[in-house]
Amino acid sequence: MQAKSLLLIDDDLELTDLIREYLSPQEYSIDTAHDGLTGLNMATKGNYDLILLDVMLPVMDGFEVLKKLRQSSLTPVLMLTAKGDDFDRIFGLELGADDYLPKPFNPRELSARIKAIVRRIEHIGNAHQHMSLSSAEVTLNPANQTVICNAHPVELTGTEFGILQLLMQQSGNLVTKQQLSEQVLGRKLVAFDRSIDMHVSNIRKKLGQASQQDKIKTIRGSGYIFTEAMQ
């Protein structure tokens, strides 16, 4: 199996050494950067499978790095946030992070989060086995991970794509937040976790740029329904 290429952007030198020591035996190739600007340059020029991005960074903070990165790249990003800081988590997800992990974290939890994202990447890579999905206005093609809405391309992150795909596959039926979290994020939903809500909000905004009709209905306290019938 070819090693997955990770970029770790964090100014905590001891932590980066520990992460490298823990992950390297697990078939990961790891590059590191210790300030935001260097990390952004490496992220935009390199071909990484996943980026681990700390929020608090010198020169350029993690939010600014992510904002600039999303202008040209959909590489999955796992944000490393301060424990208990809900603002950091929500803002990172709004900017296009795929998931977050509060510090301090157990290395096994970090490994589990990375594996969940890598599995999703591999699933998309094998997506030629899955048929495209089309409604009146939206076409989702797993083979090349594209979404078209009213003839306009819609750029989604891998996590957003996975959520929309699952909603469209279950068109007209409720998909719970627990199902979305387990099947797309690869983890159980915990209390006060708003990750799925933020990802769905991002999908709505992006689809809304090409259509005035909201295609995702919220069932408060339960989950979401894709409302357009499949063709």
From TrEMBL:
InterPro entries given in the database record: CheY-like_superfamily (IPR011006), OmpR/PhoB-type_DNA-bd (IPR001867), Sig_transdc_resp-reg_C-effctor (IPR016032), Sig_transdc_resp-reg_receiver (IPR001789), WalR-like (IPR039420), WH-like_DNA-bd_sf (IPR036388)
Protein name as annotated: Response regulator transcription factor
Record flagged with keyword DNA-binding: yes
GO molecular function: phosphorelay response regulator activity; transcription cis-regulatory region binding
Domain Response regulatory: 5-118
DNA-binding positions: 130-228
Main location: cytoplasm
Domain OmpR/PhoB-type: 130-228
Taxonomic superkingdom: Bacteria
Localization: Cytoplasm
Native source species: Neptunicella marina
Gene Ontology CC terms: cytosol; protein-DNA complex
Residues recorded with modification 4-aspartylphosphate: 54
Keywords, alphabetical: Cytoplasm, DNA-binding, Phosphoprotein, Transcription, Transcription regulation, Two-component regulatory system
A Pfam family assignment: Trans_reg_C
Signal peptide annotation: none
Keyword Cytoplasm on entry: yes
GO biological process terms on file: regulation of DNA-templated transcription
